[in-house]
Amino acid sequence: MKKILIIFIALPFILEGQIRTFKSTRVINTHSVETLQKRKLDIRIGHRFGDLLGNAGGWSTFYGLESARDITIGAEYGLTDLITIGLCRTKGGGPLRQNLNGNIKYRFLSQDKEGKMPLSMAFVGVSSVSTMSASDNPEALNNFTKTAHRFSYAAQLLLARKFGDVIALQIIPSYT
After folding, report:
1. H, E, C per residue of the chain
2. What is the pTM of this model?
3. What is the pLDDT of residues 109-149, one digit of tens each?
């Protein structure tokens, strides 16, 4: 009983020592070092707008809001406080469309207030499969002669540090 009481008393102090680098699991259109809390579900809907002004923009497209280029709908789930998994569907605005994307993020270092750990680090793995109809044109991106040609993979190492209360920097070496 004493051990349980000590854990409940010490836990807030242990958690207080870690720094939250960013307020979200995303920074603009890329992953941040942050992971979701255990058993939390985050539904994400995102898209890039069309031209704000110019021939394809202006009032006729409500300044680009009606001309969505890339649309993503998906969800992420916190398996643990350090591991987040996700699945999303992406329309795509270019020649590659109709992608199903899965990702896993593992945060293995967290910056602390005492300075013992000066930065946060996480690994992100992403796998995508195109569900587009295959083309017979050998020049087309969707010329899938083998099932393996429908897949793409990426790995990222996220390195981040929070400087004070308002500035954070993240570097993302990636391999695709």
Report:
1. CHHHHHHHHHHHHHHHCECCCCCCCEECCEECCCCCCCCCEEEEEEECCCCCCCCCCCHHHCCCCCCCCCEEEEEEEECCCCEEEEEEEECCCCCCCCEEEEEEEEEEECCECCCCCCCEEEEEEEEEEECCCCCCCCCCCCCCCCHHHHEEEEEEEEEEEEECCCEEEEECCEEC
2. 0.78
3. 999 988 899 999 999 999 999 999 888 888 888 888 899 99
